Amino acid sequence: MVRYTVDELFHLKPTESLPVQFDAEEFKAIIEKVKQIQALKEEEFNAHGGHFNRRRSSHHHHGRPKVKHTKPKVTTDSDGWSTFEAANKKVNEDEESENVSVAVVPETLKVKPNNKNISSSRPADNKDIIADKQTHSFNAFAALESDEEEET
Amino acid sequence: MSVEEVTQKLESVAVDDNSPKTVLSDSSNFEVKHPLNSKWTLWYTKPAVDKSETWSDLLRPVTSFETVEEFWAIIQNIPEPHELPMKSDYHVFRDNIRPEWEDPANSKGGKWSFHIRSKSSDIDELWLRALLAVIGETIDEDDSQINGVVLSIRKGTSKFALWTKADDNTEALTNVGTKFKQVLKLGDEDKIEFVPHSSTGKYVQATITL
Asked: What pTM value is reported for the model?
């Protein structure tokens, strides 16, 4: 087996750079390109605060979201009585009344009939039962009397 | 055969001024090269920049060499380890062995490995020392236990690994591991581990620790 010690191999090292059997420039270019891509990725990573474009998960709330409520105004008079003043509510009431007036504006309302029993033999409304009731029963004597009058 | 023996042999063959020039007589226009014991291939693992790239896309042979002079020419023309991007690997493997566990020459082997947290300049020097020890065969046993050597560049650390063809020859593996520690300039407090490829990826268990 041919062996070379480290010193012997260093002794055989040419002082000048020698040509190689492969495209060293292309190899170096690939490595440089990879380094550039990695640098860009790292820059993007740092720009986003140490994480990539993660979508915000639905589990990011660790509690109920904070809703700011205005504190009610309480005034205390000279006798020591505290009075709750819902000043904002008054304004709201006015707004509500305006809303109500708007809601009263007449509109063309489409009445949707209840078709639930439309194919049934049962009347849809009890009033219909009364209306359909036969109000005049047949009177045979009355009918005979009328025939006699006609003959005379 | 040492380099001096090879040189002496060449000089003894030479009888006149027309004798072939070696790197020792003319470092740029030499005609005779110093042969290595084996043909070696330099492989490079490119870091993945696209999710579609597979391992086979990333691992590519760069070039091969069979002489000391060819080796130096390659070393002078490729980036040094500290110039490599993160997640790069250099592999130098014997003959046509692929630097993969699946290669038949590696399937029954294992590797000595050591992680170094060190300055980039030190990594360059240690990688060169490891290469010289491997291609010069001074780290190997007479029955040739070594298949190749790998350098993995990672963030904040570099991993040196020496791949062997067998995982059961404890005496030979211990000798190789001891020399590997010397090449990497490790002290007694530094521990290197030998892990068979068969256990890698499942339950990694070192069989020898030095």
From this structure: 0.64
